[in-house]
């Protein structure tokens, strides 16, 4: 009887956990919650390492189909990572191509999209790992301006001779 | 990249660009306006010009005269090296000559007066002394024009209007740990940034260039400046020379739109009579366990290694002309399967025949900016492609492999060049966590496995021993680099076969008959037959243990029974020993010829290319087991290179031999 009660308690605990977890998943899937949800340092530590970069195949232009290729490098097997794209208003996602697996750590995805309004827009990327039945996530934002895709803050400038330069800071010793 | 303990890819992207002279369509109205303008300007002084065109001209032959620009006026100090930078533009042709002359002032010794950039040492004067110089540019129709520039030499003491700013530019040079061969951040040398372009930039708009000079061989710079303003010193990652030896080498950030690296010092206020000493230093960015600041030293460490290479070339040829070279480096540069330099994926450190060198910068994995051997190795590929003829097909390789003889020579030469330029037989490549480990080889050890003409270690060892002064068993030779350079730049460009250690030694012996026996001894120590050497190495007996390695060249006789030639992947595929076979076709009568190659087995696919002194004349590379080509050939010695397509296109293929019959008939 004692054994039966203990077993029943374990089963009930598992059932309780099962009922709770889907709720937290649904919260994470909620787009509004995602944006505002803070990621604590301890949570961040648990998350996987994921690097992201992107290239475009055409210049981003208004009301035309443009293609972005997003490259990922993960500390986890790519098979347990789910990628979602969340555009800000002004970006319309037309198609997400099948994932191309480069190796067990790197993969890439292509997105066809259209910019429907002038100005600066963002394409957020939410990567979710399902490792150990726990969801952790990472977000990235790709800034998109009509006419070009800005990879990141452009640190290079043009000098007086029309040459593009990348400035490094020197240690100066003045006497 | 490197050879030792690491695989390398060597790219060859052939450009199809031609430098064709532009033809100008002359607009008569525009021409009339220009002629009128020239007549008006002919009466003006100060940099406008006196145009002249020799002989009488007719309307259909009118030449638009070039324009001449003698550069900015400068104020300099006594003993300072003054560089006169001129240029000319010809809208209907090209500039064919430059001539600098001194018009007035204390006479100076003008160097390189027949090029766009001339120089002289400023004489010592008691008071500010102006010197006037005139630049004459001449176009390809003998039309000429002139420009003037004034250089003011300051007296012994500063006058009331002038300030000076001078100092030394240095960088952190990380040395290698002699045991682990990685980088030793406890062992940093402060080295001068030599011979690079340095500028004074107006700080108000951070753009206007106030003055330009070059650092000296000890890293010093100096400027004399007028007025009061805020400026900063900018050091550009550029090595340039436009007279005597000619080169234009820059280090760019391929991750940032190929921007040129510049090192900017802090802003400083200059005012009359101030004499400022400003030393500028590029730090490594290393914090003790990682790079936690920008790696400013890296571009200058790369240029420092290349400067040693340039000096070596100048020792052999004071007028060496090198094409423009870009070295692409950034911390994002990492190894990859595909080449996407814009996002830092560069496969590995390598030279591309677009005249680009790519170097790894991926911290804790593999960085090469302080690996002088790697930088010089890649620069050597650029040198061979520029001043000589590189026949190497590139591809993965290592020092333990048996390679196609073209690849073995190209990589062996690059290893030897790195050791010769650094005057050090030790070759190191750092990598790993904190860059703390690395690979090492000493070219003077002469103990490579798989010795022979197909091994890059053997080739490198021979070439280094030809130069070095540390002679050991079988090595009694110490030649100036010029002797090596001459074979590369004069003989290898004319070689009928493919360039290999055999062609190199063959021509070296012809040029240096007095040491012929010593050369043979050196080669023999690496299992290479050179005592009885002809252009096509007919007497070589070392087959490397391969069934289809010898003879190196087979004579392909016209209208005779087809030859049976074998290829093999027993030492690997793509670029290894016996993947390619070489045939010589001696054409004594011009005409149309038909060349056929048939595979013994239907699954094999013969391809061949016909070369004349290294240039591809024709390729036959259709799918299938039979290849046939009709071609018009003039009198000459042609080299036909045969391969099995499936041998070289499948990196995993190994241990298979293929037989082909190949013949030629005159049509």
Structural account:
The complex is a heterodimer of chains A (175) and B (667). Chain A has 3 helices and 12 strands, in the order H-H-H-E-E-E-E-E-E-E-E-E-E-E-E. With 175 residues, chain A is an alpha+beta fold. In chain A, the strands form 3 sheets. In chain A, strands 1, 2, 4, 5 and 6 form a 5-stranded antiparallel beta sheet that branches. In chain A, strands 3-7-8-9 form a 4-stranded antiparallel beta sheet. In chain A, strands 10-11 form a two-stranded antiparallel ribbon. In chain A, strand 10 and strand 11 form a beta hairpin. Chain A is extended and about 80 Å long. The N and C termini of chain A lie far apart (90 Å). Chain B has 667 residues and is α+β, with helices and mostly antiparallel strands. Chain B has 4 domains: 138 residues, no CATH class; 99 residues, Immunoglobulins (Immunoglobulin-like, Sandwich), CATH 2.60.40; 228 residues, no CATH class; 114 residues, Jelly Rolls (Sandwich). Helices cover 17% and strands 36% of the residues of chain B. Chain B has 9 helices and 37 strands. In chain B, strands 12, 13, 15, 16, 17, 18, 20, 23 and 24 form a 9-stranded mixed beta sheet that branches. In chain B, helix 2 crosses helix 3. Chain B is globular, with a radius of gyration of 29 Å. Chain B starts with 27 loop residues before the first helix and ends with a strand. The relative contact order of chain B is 0.08. The N terminus of chain B is likely disordered. At the A-B interface, strand 11 and strand 12 of A face strand 15, strand 17 and strand 19 of B. Strand 12 of chain A pairs antiparallel with strand 19 of chain B.
């Amino acid at each position: 009887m004692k054994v039966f009660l203990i077993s029943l308690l374990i089963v009930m605990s598992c059932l309780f956990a099962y009922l709770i977890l889907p709720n937290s998943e649904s919260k994470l899937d909620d787009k509004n919650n995602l944006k505002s949800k803070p990621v604590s340092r301890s949570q961040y530590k648990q998350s996987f390492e994921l690097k992201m970069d992107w290239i475009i195949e055409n210049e981003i232009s208004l009301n035309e189909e443009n293609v972005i290729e997003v490259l990922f490098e993960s500390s986890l097997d790519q098979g347990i990572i789910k990628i979602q794209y969340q555009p800000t208003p002004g970006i319309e996602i037309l198609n997400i191509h099948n994932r191309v697996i480069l190796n067990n750590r790197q993969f890439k995805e292509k997105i066809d999209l259209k910019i429907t309004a002038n100005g600066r827009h963002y394409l957020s990327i939410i990567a979710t790992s399902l490792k150990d039945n726990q969801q952790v996530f990472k977000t990235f934002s790709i800034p998109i301006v009509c006419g070009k895709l800005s990879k990141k803050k452009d640190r290079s400038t043009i000098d007086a001779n029309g040459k593009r330069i990348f400035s490094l800071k020197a240690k100066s010793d003045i006497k | 990249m490197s050879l030792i303990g690491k695989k390398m890819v060597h790219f060859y992207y052939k450009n199809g660009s031609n430098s064709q002279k532009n033809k100008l369509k002359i607009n008569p109205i525009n021409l009339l306006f220009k002629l009128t303008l020239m007549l008006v300007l002919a009466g003006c002084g100060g940099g406008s010009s006196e145009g002249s065109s020799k002989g009488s001209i007719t309307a259909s032959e009118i030449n638009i005269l070039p324009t001449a620009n003698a550069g900015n006026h400068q104020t300099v100090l006594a003993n300072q090296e003054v560089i006169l930078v001129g240029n000319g533009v010809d809208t209907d042709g090209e500039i064919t000559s430059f001539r600098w002359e001194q018009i007035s002032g204390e006479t100076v010794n003008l160097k390189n007066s027949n090029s766009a950039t001339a120089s002289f040492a400023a004489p010592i004067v008691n008071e500010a002394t102006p010197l006037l110089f005139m630049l004459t540019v001449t176009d390809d129709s003998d039309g000429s024009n002139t420009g003037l520039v004034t250089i003011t030499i300051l007296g012994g003491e500063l006058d009331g209007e002038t300030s000076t700013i001078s100092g030394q530019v240095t960088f952190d040079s990380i040395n290698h740990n002699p045991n682990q061969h990685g980088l030793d951040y406890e062992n940093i040398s402060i080295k001068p940034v030599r011979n690079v372009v340095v500028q004074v930039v107006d700080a108000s708009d951070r753009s206007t260039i106030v003055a330009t000079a070059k650092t000296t061989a000890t890293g010093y710079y100096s400027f004399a400046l007028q007025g009061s303003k805020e400026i900063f010193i900018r050091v550009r990652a550029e090595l340039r020379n436009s007279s005597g030896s000619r080169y234009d080498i820059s280090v760019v950030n391929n991750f940032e739109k190929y921007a040129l690296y510049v090192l900017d010092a802090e802003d400083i206020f200059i005012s009359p009579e101030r004499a400022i000493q400003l030393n500028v230093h590029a730090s490594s960015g290393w914090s003790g366990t990682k790079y936690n600041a920008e790696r400013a030293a890296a571009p200058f460490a790369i240029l420092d290694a290349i400067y040693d290479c340039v000096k070596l070339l100048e020792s052999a040829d004071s007028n060496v002309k090198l094409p423009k070279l870009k070295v692409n480096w950034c911390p994002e540069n990492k190894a990859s399967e595909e080449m996407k330099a814009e996002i830092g994926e560069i496969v590995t450190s390598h030279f591309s025949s677009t005249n680009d060198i790519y170097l790894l910068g991926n911290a804790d994995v593999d960085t090469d900016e302080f690996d002088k051997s790697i930088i010089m190795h890649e620069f050597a590929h650029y040198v061979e492609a520029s001043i000589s003829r590189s026949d190497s097909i590139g591809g993965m390789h290592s020092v333990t492999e048996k390679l196609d003889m073209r690849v073995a020579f190209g990589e062996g030469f690059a290893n030897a060049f790195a050791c010769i330029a650094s005057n050090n037989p030790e070759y190191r490549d750092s990598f790993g966590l904190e860059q703390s480990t690395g690979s090492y080889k000493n070219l003077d050890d002469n103990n490579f496995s798989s010795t022979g003409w197909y091994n890059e270690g053997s080739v490198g060892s021979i070439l280094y021993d030809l130069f070095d002064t540390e002679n050991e068993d079988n090595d009694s030779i110490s030649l100036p680099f010029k002797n090596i350079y001459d074979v590369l730049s004069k003989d290898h460009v004319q070689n009928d076969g493919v360039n290999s250690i055999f062609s190199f030694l063959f021509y070296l012996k012809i040029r240096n008959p007095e040491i012929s026996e010593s050369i043979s001894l050196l080669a023999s120590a690496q299992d290479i037959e050179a005592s009885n050497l002809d252009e096509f190495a007919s007497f070589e007996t070392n087959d490397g243990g391969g069934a289809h390695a010898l003879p190196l060249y087979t004579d392909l006789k016209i209208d005779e029974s087809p030859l049976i030639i074998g290829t093999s992947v027993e030492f690997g595929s793509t670029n290894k020993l016996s993947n390619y076979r070489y045939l010589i076709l001696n054409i004594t009568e011009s005409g149309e010829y038909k060349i056929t190659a048939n595979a013994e087995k239907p699954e094999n696919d013969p391809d061949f290319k016909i070369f004349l002194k290294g240039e591809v004349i024709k390729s036959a590379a259709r799918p299938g087991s039979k290849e046939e080509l009709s071609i018009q050939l003039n009198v000459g010695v042609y080299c036909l290179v045969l391969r099995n397509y499936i041998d070289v296109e499948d990196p995993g293929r190994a241990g298979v031999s293929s037989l082909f019959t190949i013949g030629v008939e005159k049509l």
